[in-house]
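Database export, one record per block. Field names are fixed; values are copied verbatim from the stored entry.
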Amino acid sequence: MSTRGWYEYYVLDSATRHCSLGMQFYKWGDATPENALCEWQLLKKQIDKNDGCLPVIWLDDMLREQLGVLYDRLPKHFSVAAFLFLIQRAHEESSPYRNWKYRELEEEHRPDYRLGFALGETMALHGVRRQRHEDPVLNLVLTFIAIGRFVRPWRDYGLNWRFLEWLQYLTQPTQSVDMGSIAGDRTPPIFDISYRYRFFIEIDSTEPWRIVRLAIELCDASGHNLLQRGAPAPDADEDELIDEQEAQKLRQRIAEEVVQTDTLAEVEKVYAAELDCFWGATHNEQPPLHPAVQANWR
């Protein structure tokens, strides 16, 4: 049975002391705590390689262009969190185990090849030269963003698709969703997940989207921290003993690999929550009504 998880990306603004839920997504398959730690390392590596200044501007410019006035309805600092999501998707899509079902097809019939050809052709018609990046992961992120601008623009999908489904579609050759990180849901499928992972992305907003710290919290499906369970009672059953053994292994790995951890409970003591107009259903809040609707509502 595959291990499934729910990811929450919180953006902490160290200048304003505000916290916003920037991105959420589901992961189907291999969503173990050990793999979540590997994903923390992947993101941390990219952040460090770029001295904290990832090219978030690529995504932010594309979203402003595609969404227009709707851009202001996105969560605060959405572009930062979504850019890290795109890095994770790029890592998944660049795996040698991906797209195995296309390997037997001739090149011109492969969906990934046809998508790449369509991108090059459309950019040429627009008189735009395709950008490249020396880092293969960031280069693929750049491709995702170009797809959103030239091949799969929001205007072609906005009437039928939710925004997060469109964002996901930019990262895959076809509409078929495979194993991996999947954006689209606004609330976790609580009966279909084993774990919940919270990433805390601390930024210094006085500089353009500079990430100064990345931390993680490993939780069970209900959101209880896996590392803070109390010691098993003398008469504990086998499952409790196994849980404690697994928690101890995670603590040891975190210490050895110097993984930065935090908890939502501690974050909420320092950072005030931003008004949420996007994930409202997640926090049992309704998004604010449009002013014209408010007038009629009275």
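Remark 1: The chain has a mean pLDDT of 87.
Remark 2: Residues 4-297 form one domain.
End of record.
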